[in-house]
Amino acid sequence: MAQEASSSTSSKTISLKTGDGEIFEIEASAAKQMKTVQRLIDDLGDDITIPLHNVFSKELPKIIEYYKKDITGEITKDFEAEFVKDLNDDEVKVLFLAANYLDANKLFEFLSQNIADRLESKSVEYVRKYFGVENDFTPEEESKLREERAWSFRGIKEDE
Amino acid sequence: MDRISELPDEILSYILTMLSIKDLLKTSILSKRWRKLWYLRRDLDFNILHMLGSTSRKPLEERGHLNINMDEFVKRVDQFLNNFQGTKIDSFSLSFYSNDKHSNIIDQWISFAIARGVETINLLLLTYNRYKFAFDLFSETNTSTLKHLRLERCLVCHPTKCDYIPFKNLRSLSLYFSKVDEIFIESLLTNCRWLEELDLEFCEFRSSMPKIVSSSLSNLKVRKCYVVSGNMKKEIDLSSLDCLKLTSLEYHGYNLDTLNINTPLLNIIYCTVPDCEDPIPKQYALFATLPKLEIMKLDFYSRVPILKITQPFKHLKQLDITFYIEEYSEFDLLGILTLLQASPLLHKLSIMLTHPEIVGNQNVVKDVDICSHDEVRVIELRGCVGNWYEIEFVMNVLRYAHKLERIVLSPYWRECDSWDWKSDPVWFQNGRQRISEKLLNENVVGREKLVLI
Fold first, then answer.
1. Is this model's pTM higher than 0.90 or not?
2. Alpha-carbon span A18 to B98, nearest angstrom
3. By CB atoms within 10 Å of each CB, which of A12, A74, B150, B178 scores lowest?
4. Which parts of chain B register pLDDT below 50?
């Protein structure tokens, strides 16, 4: 595509519209990292505002911030630590689901690791709530399993 | 999609991959669906400290093992594997303080992983008597899945009845503090046509260092190996290295004189330079013959003597020198200028002084007579605290490195040095002050290129 060959690709911006109607700009090279967005650009053209029904104005700026750093090759461990430092567990979850929807691999993997870290030694009830899992075990079934694997339930952190 | 649990199995498996083994097992009771999701995990890492609930970040080797319940650990790993119904295991890692009675069960665990197509095995077994890693655990059908093997403190035995080529697909082999027969290493080198990386550190061989001959090897690391003869440890050195594809060599031995090498593509060398009386050390002559050598990293345990290097390092672009000095009284940096002179195309010179101290007697700085260097662009001197020999080196190099763009002086000698040098009054007043006085005054040519951290 002519877009790829020309050096103006890096300065070209794409308009993204969130599910709650706000518009954000992103550089074309950053948009390329989000496969869902790139597919929409391929179908609709890059001059049209791309609609993202499942991503909202609360999380999209954070995602854009991440990929802005990514295209300059500046993502470091320090940056990533800083990126999630002030986010609570639910905010990370929302970003994770958005990264999945946008098919943004790098951010998705980083957030998977962050979620795994946050869930370390949390209680089963907390994890159920976090993932949105309905417990369909009978109390007897559950206590039998807990007994068998008792060691994995020791050392649980207090839920926040 | 507003709930993580609505995601399909393969997406959830990303999070599952990153959970600790303990947390992974916990997910098995979230719900009936989750009872089986944990089988998607393909990398199993059983570390005794994590499994017994320790949050310490200290590596296993540094902790005393008096209070650790090994039997409990074995019970937990056993239970995990008995319940695990995944069909593929990619990697199996085990770190614990084993003893002889655990050998059988470790064999069983490894067989479990082998039966599920394991490609990477890492064993760190801190034990008095080395665990015998029996290649007999593999059979002809599954021996070719193994790609990466890392064994620490093991006894590596040649497979006894082997009429097929074992480990044809091995890509990397690392042995630390292990005991192995050199014939076996040589046969692996011949038979493993895709072996790219070999790492032999602190290993005990039967009677000599193996000859490293391979048409595929690209990275070799050898460190302080030995043989035992009559209850005494005898140090042995690498002598024969014939690897047409080798691009990187890291060698920390005792003596480089016996080295015979045929490594036309060697690009990076990292080695410890033995203390040497000889002003024309043979290793430099050897390195100078390498047609593609571009990066050289040298560790010194004493000062670099003023060398007479007759053959230059014709292609060298980067030189990193690290000093491990305990006593700075007889120390100076001028010998490095001879190495610089012998590297006419060098772009970057990096010097690191580990454990810097401010020397009591600050000697007078002298000028030396040297030819100009027309290529070097960047010089870094880390662990620089303003001692006279550092100032002497900088003044001299500024005079003759005409194309130099910048010379960086920094007291930080570790990557993550949190020591706040700026608040240390001794350093700030003496060392840093001295650097500013001597190197930033008008008489110093090239002082604009100085970067002080």
1. no
2. 56
3. A74
4. none
